[in-house]
């Protein structure tokens, strides 16, 4: 097995406070790391670095853990740019737009969907994302949900069954029948291809009782729960996520004091998706309030054709800093270690001996440039899993 020494790292973000400056980012200056067999085997000052079979000199640039994007909806077909344009002229976002994508996705071939996911995973990788969660949710039949997950599985272990995205057209008059389908045959077909189960708990999608039923059925089938909640208005979804002690609850745009306290008490990760607020021209979640209450915050892209069609974690970091009053350090942590927490992973989102050697070299002296230079493609090189050819 050959080893690689990455040296002359001006600023290394380890996300391990014991390795660096004692802050959550665990910063090391003039650092190096050694990689072998896909894992980090050594981290420390450049001057002390051991010899290795190969050397990459990064010229004083910053190195960060690869982004862990814990929320995306990449298995889809079609285009909703007209809906976006209408929204920018005043039409509000609603959950109903999902049905447009469902029709296009059902009509697509496996090959088309696979090529589409591959293109987006590669697009993410170019922007520094090395771990991505991918949801189903645009098939909404037993066959189409199972195939979406099988396709996603070829790209990531972090696949999520989201049969409960919206009630499809053909069940419009029988939502209870659709919940029976999701918790019965659809779950049975999906479970083998998924690690997680999710529900869109929102007005126009699924109510809190339906969400509980679906998450409990998923748990019985061996899937861990996560939830879309409190996106379009205040609702009971965040409380449900905390009651069920889910790993993460996503969106969290509209929270009251009880929600914030419950998140702090349970340790359920609040995953904020600022690309959604940007792309739907909505108020941003109050990240400062969450952080000040000790809630674990993650940032993710929510890349999807409706509410937010960006795959860029650097954009999410910049938005979180500028619009949500997160510090650059908090935002980077949330987009890397926070995402790992939201996926219950401790092997990614950090660069310490034993962790996966998933990292990005920035064409910048510091990670702060991700927010300081918004919109600039700063990711120069990425080490991490290669998507299947
Ligand atoms: O996370 N909220 C539910 N699902 C997506 C939107 C999906 C769509 O509009 O197609 C989201 O925002
Ligand atoms: Fe989503």
Describe this structure in words.
With 389 residues, this protein is of the alpha/beta class. It folds into two domains: 3-66 and 350-383, Urease, subunit C, domain 1; 67-342, Metal-dependent hydrolases (TIM Barrel, Alpha-Beta Barrel), CATH 3.20.20. Helices cover 35% and strands 21% of the residues. Strands 1, 2, 3, 4, 5, 15 and 16 form a seven-stranded mixed beta sheet that branches. A seven-stranded parallel beta sheet has the order 8-9-10-11-12-13-14. The protein starts with a strand and ends in a 6-residue tail after the last strand. N-(iminomethyl)-L-glutamic acid binds at residues 73, 97-98, 101, 200, 228, 231, 276, 302, 304-307.
Distance between the termini: 23 Å
CATH level-1 class of the largest domain = Alpha Beta
Task: Identify the bound ligands.
Answer: N-(iminomethyl)-L-glutamic acid, fe (iii) ion
Give Rg in angstroms. 20 Å
- Low-pLDDT residue intervals, each spanning 5 or more residues: none
SSE topology string = EEEEEEHHHEEHEHEHEHEHEHHEHHEHE
Percent helix = 25-40%
Task: Fill in the keyword field for this structure.
single chain; 389 residues; alpha/beta; Urease, subunit C, domain 1; TIM Barrel; 2 domains; seven-stranded mixed beta sheet; seven-stranded parallel beta sheet; 35% helix; 21% strand; globular; binds N-(iminomethyl)-L-glutamic acid; binds fe (iii) ion
């Amino acid at each position: 097995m050959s080893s690689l020494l990455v040296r002359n790292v001006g600023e290394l973000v380890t996300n391990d406070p014991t390795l660096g400056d004692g802050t959550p980012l665990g910063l090391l200056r003039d650092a190096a790391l050694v990689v072998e067999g896909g894992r980090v085997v050594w981290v420390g000052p450049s001057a002390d670095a051991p010899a290795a079979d190969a050397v990459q000199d990064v010229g004083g640039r910053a190195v960060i853990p690869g982004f862990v994007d814990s929320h995306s909806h990449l298995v889809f077909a079609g285009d909703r740019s007209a809906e976006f344009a209408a929204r920018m002229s005043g039409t509000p976002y609603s959950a109903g737009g999902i049905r447009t994508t469902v029709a296009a996705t059902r009509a697509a071939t496996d090959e088309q969907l696979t090529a589409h996911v591959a293109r987006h995973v590669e697009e993410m990788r170019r922007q520094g994302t090395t771990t991505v969660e991918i949801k189903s949710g645009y098939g909404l039949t037993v066959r189409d949900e199972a195939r979406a997950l099988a396709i996603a599985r070829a790209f990531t272990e972090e696949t999520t069954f989201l049969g409960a995205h919206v009630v499809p057209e053909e069940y419009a008059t029988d939502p209870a029948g659709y919940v029976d389908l999701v918790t019965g045959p659809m779950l049975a077909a999906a479970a083998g291809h998924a690690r997680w189960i999710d529900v869109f708990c929102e007005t126009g999608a699924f109510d809190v009782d339906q969400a509980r039923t679906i998450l409990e059925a998923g748990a019985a089938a061996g899937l861990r729960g996560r939830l879309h909640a409190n996106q379009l208005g205040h609702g009971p979804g965040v409380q449900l996520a905390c009651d069920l002690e889910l790993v993460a609850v996503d969106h969290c745009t509209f929270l009251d004091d009880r929600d914030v306290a419950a998140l702090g008490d349970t340790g359920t990760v609040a995953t904020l998706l600022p690309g959604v607020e940007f792309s739907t021209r909505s108020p941003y979640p109050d990240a400062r309030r969450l952080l000040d209450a000790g809630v674990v915050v993650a940032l993710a892209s929510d890349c999807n054709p409706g509410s937010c069609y960006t795959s860029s974690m650097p954009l999410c970091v910049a938005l979180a800093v500028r619009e949500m009053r997160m510090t650059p350090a908090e935002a980077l942590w949330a987009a890397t270690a926070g995402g790992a927490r939201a996926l219950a992973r401790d092997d990614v989102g950090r660069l310490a001996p034993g962790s996966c050697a998933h990292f990005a070299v920035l064409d910048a002296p510091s990670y702060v440039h991700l927010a300081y230079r918004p919109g600039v493609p700063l990711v120069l090189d990425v080490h991490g899993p290669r998507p299947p050819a």
